[in-house]
Please model this.
Amino acid sequence: MAVIFFRTVTTMQQTQYRLSLLLLTAVSAFLYWQQVAPGVLNYHEQNQLFLFTLDHLTHALSLPGGLADYLAEAGMQLAYYPTLGALWMAIQSVLTFLLISNLLAQLRPHYNVVSLLLTVAITLMTCHVRWTPTLPLVLLLVLAATWLAGKSRPWMDLLLLPVLYWMVGPVAWLYAAWRILTMGLRMVWSLPYLGLIVATAAYVLTQWPWQVILAGIHYRTDALQSPWSAHLLAAMVLLPAIYYRWVATPKRPSLLLLPCPLALALLTLFCCPDRNEMEILRLDMLVRHGAWEEVIHRVEHHPVPSPFTSQCVNLALGMTGQLPHRMFELYQDGPEGLLMPMIRDNVSDLPTAEAFFQLGMINEALRYTTDLQQSILTYKRSGRCTKRMAECHLINGNHTAAAKELQWLEQSLFYRSWAKENMRLVGRDNLIDQHPIYGQLRKLRFKENFLYNYHERHKILGLLFASNTNNLLALQYHMAQLLLNGDLNMLMQSMPWVQQYGGFSQMPTTYRDALEYAQQKKSANDSPYGQYIKRQANLSIDR
Model:
């Protein structure tokens, strides 16, 4: 009786221990994605547009790994709302933890700490923007297929491996390797068999370089530069299984406890994403949703020295009317801290595109947004960019182009209601003129098309304000660009605009500080503007 009672208590303790780790996984994953890395989810969501169409599904099914990519897109669209996106990622983490625990239990008694550390390592590693949301789901599907296969007969893998490869891509080798661990060397044939399947796919899919086929079409945005990284992540999942199967045996129990968890703990520290990258992506998310006060708060407490940061905080200051007062209280990177030149990637110019739109430079906003969408390395359409392009076309009166973009959005989930609401504006200029945002921007925009020199953007901002003196954001940007350029003579020439149209009872703090520094009434150490000029001079010397 005592033995039965002791075993019951032990079983209950093991169950409670496992449930506590499961709860820890769920809560920590949810909080991580919601509080620490919401910008990463926003980045992935805005660089795809999941459509509920047959064409979208058939295109996905026509490529190896396409089904996993389709499911990952379907789930990632939930990140339009950060809480839903965090919940989706937490569910994946919980399922990954359960599957790894159950699979390792087939080799040795439960080592749930190892399962937890593996789940954490996968989460941290795939948090980098070079990974797509597809890879963690691919690992989850492969682990699920391995668990469901159990001790099934070897001949079933003849049918399952081609299907699994077409569902998830080349990481299907993890399934074959785990089967070899659990069923012995009689399953060794499965790895060359899978290699033959992959080679056939590389031969048939001539539109893709063979390196991309081997690396997985949908795993990374830089598959040609890092063709084997996805397989290293899969190997990371397999290594503990190899360790418990062939190294740490019951005859050597001391090897069961520390080496593997310790190695995984060190790996999780190594996998931590770059803090500055995370902060920049968070700023991008805040700018997208117009959370201007929060942008200012983030830059006050977590400044990242980059033009991107300056663009975001200057736009936030301008939208809240604080740019003439607080500009040099916050980090300023240099003359490109307001409006960046065109850069061929899908992140750097996002705040510039937003600034052009808010200023009323609609054609520039459209040009930048179109380029941003074309720069997405996964060749997908962006929901965020499609929405902005539709807005620009409506403001410009290009109704045919606007209708085309809105039809894409009508086939999505979270953009559908917005697209239907804006579709009623197509062909109705009177309704667009009455719209609180589009109508105002129609008044502020340039009425004629022309080319300009990017290096003289202070002039174009001045012309934009002169064409409509109600555009106070253009006035703030014009003066701010002169300050960043160090052109105090032209600043003085533009000061009558500030006095006549700015609506200030006294000269704004930033302008007064700059003029006092220029007149040598303040030293560089006492003047925020002087410190900026001194830093720029030092940078010029270093270059």
